[in-house]
Amino acid sequence: MKNKLFLLAVTFCLPVYSQEVSKSFIPMVQIPSGSFYMGSDGLGEDFDEAPIHQVIVSRSFRMGVTEITNAQYELFRPEHRELRGKNGVSREDDEAVVNVSYFDAVAFCDWLSQKEGKSYRLPTEAEWEYACRAGTYTVFFAGDGLPAVYHRNQKVTRDFDPVSLKVAQTPPNAFGLYDMHGNVEEWCLDWYAPYSGEKQIDPTGPLSGEFRVTRGGSHHTPEKYLRSANRMAMIPEDKHSQTGFRIVETDTPLNVSGGSAPVSLNRESVENSSKRWKNISAKIPIFMSPIPFVIRPACDSGTPFYLHNHQPAVTWCDNGDLLAIWFSANEENGRGMVVLGSRLRRGHNNWDEASLFFKVPDRNMTGSALLNDGRGTIYHVNGVEASGDWQNLAMVLRVSTDNGASWSTPRLIAPEHAKRHQVIAGTIRTREGWLVQACDAGPGSHDGAAIHISKDEGKTWYDPWDGAPLPDFKEGGTGSTIAGIHAGIVQLKNGNLMALGRGNSIRNKEGKLRMPMSISDDMGKNWKYMASELPPIDGGQRLVLMRLNEGPLLLVSFTDHPLRTPLEERGLDFKNQDGTTYKGYGMYAALSYDEGKTWPVKRLLTDGKERFLNVIIRRTYMIPLRCTSFHLNGGAWTGYFEMDEKHAEPRGYLAGTQTPDNLIHILSSRLHYRFNLAWLEK
């Protein structure tokens, strides 16, 4: 066996850094003790890199010259060879191993420790950054930019483009370590947590947490996330084609301690009670003035808050509160994205300031959903990408049984990073007690929608899709994918599922494009397509479809697109109380009493009062007193609009819920609307 290991070391042909390189079959280099300043200024999306703080590495340690390779890892776990070449990467012996979880990496270290009689483990986050910097304080160890020679294993494209992950193909740093910027992300030992500004000796992170730190970025990571100080993290069970690991050898005992994240405002002082909802009159029409639910946090709050606030989800809490979440980012397809939350507390007239709700560091998390199942549990479902552009997401689930004051540890429910996992707000619970979660089936505007189903209250999930390509979405056609992205789904009284979506519009008998309707009589395995009577919607618009407590189906959508719909097709005919009609524009609500066949009641979401709606906020840069005024970018609708008797909000990504008191709540990209069935029907 010793000869076999020796031959492996020779095969890799790695440069020898004098006598400092160990004789293990995994080449190691001695990292001297010392001190450095960890982190960065933490501006904008890099808020978690601050404050810069001094770290003392009190003892030397040995670190792998390269990331662990396929050949090395498979001596421990031979069956991993079946994953070689998955997603087109890491086929050869000398390529970095990928598709390994944190627990896989730890198990390898334990195996190697027992095998060689030494102490191997993953590096701490501090050890990793210290070793990466190798005495430098520049953005990268090679300077303030990353020279082209370090991009040899980099290829950042929207559609995943495989590259070689062969180790040691770029120059090493001053310590003799290869691939510290790129190739594959590397698991670290620590739970992810905010930094402390205090001087630290051999820090190891907190005792517990939700995410384990990863460092270094991958072959598919933009350069700005390859910096020495950049922090990433993953759910420990997660694994994909962009993450591997390297190891350290040390006899230094670890003293694991540290802080945890502060409690966010949306989780503070949450009344843990139930049955606070009282019925309101079913006969008195109610329409309340729209109010903003996206409220700027204080500049010194520590809440990461960005220009682009978009894609809300909303649900009710048993204690009488409303809970809303949405993403905040500077780039919608970037990694610097957080999910923020706010609460409209029982008896209050204004929403709380925005505060952090969910964040996997340096991951795109486009798409969130909330559902109160009516039995004391709130479900939160979110997509989590390996990298940007909405096509390599896993899905995670958290639950709360105390009105959102606390949440369970995030759990992977669709662990494969793939398409069909971009979460859409509007989770439903069927009459069978099943949970149905809608997701976009792909990143394109005509990729349709998918569903994921749980028959056991969220424990296990499946996608009924048969793997067939996208069908021809036409009248009378069939397929296994819902017509239209951002789909709303309801269960009909006969048990069938019905969906309405954006895009994949279908022409009716008159040849006019209409919003596509999809019907499934086998719980999502097959869908039949038809043109609805409703106008199609377009970019920057998302509908709400739900069943009201009183029985009818409710659709909230838009009459047209203010920029893309031809002038002659804009608007929709609405009826006055005297029976006359008028042309109205913008967001409307429609009711169906025959399970979606017809929608006889349509009403603009305005009470006729003239309002010039705009919200002024301040941009937060994560350090005190650096705030500048700007207008809130709601994402889908980014400007101003005038509401009157014939005009409502023209665009927005909608989310909705109906509270136990029968009041209907609709969120656009920035505004909260409240009305009841009596108002719609008057």
What can you see in these coordinates?
The protein is mainly beta. The protein folds into three domains: 2-249, paralog of FGE (formylglycine-generating enzyme) (Alpha-Beta Complex); 296-426, Neuraminidase; 533-682, no CATH class. The protein has five helices and 46 strands. The strands form 14 sheets. A five-stranded antiparallel beta sheet has the order 25-31-30-27-26, with no helix packed on it. A hairpin with a 5-residue loop joins strand 35 (572-575) and strand 36 (581-584). The longest helix has 15 residues, at 102-116.
List the helices and strands and how they pair.
Blueprint: H1 2-12, E1 28-31, E2 34-38, E3 53-57, E4 61-64, H2 70-76, H3 102-116, E5 120-121, H4 125-133, E6 185-191, E7 200-201, E8 212-215, E9 232-234, E10 243-244, E11 248-249, E12 287-292, E13 308-316, E14 322-329, E15 337-344, E16 355-358, E17 368-372, E18 378-385, E19 393-400, E20 411-418, E21 422-423, E22 428-429, E23 435-440, E24 449-454, E25 478-479, E26 485-491, E27 497-502, E28 506-507, E29 513-514, E30 516-520, E31 527-531, E32 541-542, E33 544-547, E34 553-558, E35 572-575, E36 581-584, E37 587-592, E38 601-604, E39 611-613, E40 616-620, E41 627-631, E42 641-643, E43 652-653, E44 655-658, E45 664-667, E46 671-675, H5 677-681
Parallel strand pairs: 3-7, 6-10, 32-43
Antiparallel strand pairs: 1-4, 2-3, 4-11, 5-11, 6-8, 8-9, 12-46, 13-14, 14-15, 15-16, 17-18, 18-19, 19-20, 21-23, 22-23, 23-24, 25-31, 26-27, 27-30, 28-29, 30-31, 33-34, 34-37, 35-36, 37-38, 39-42, 40-41, 44-45, 45-46
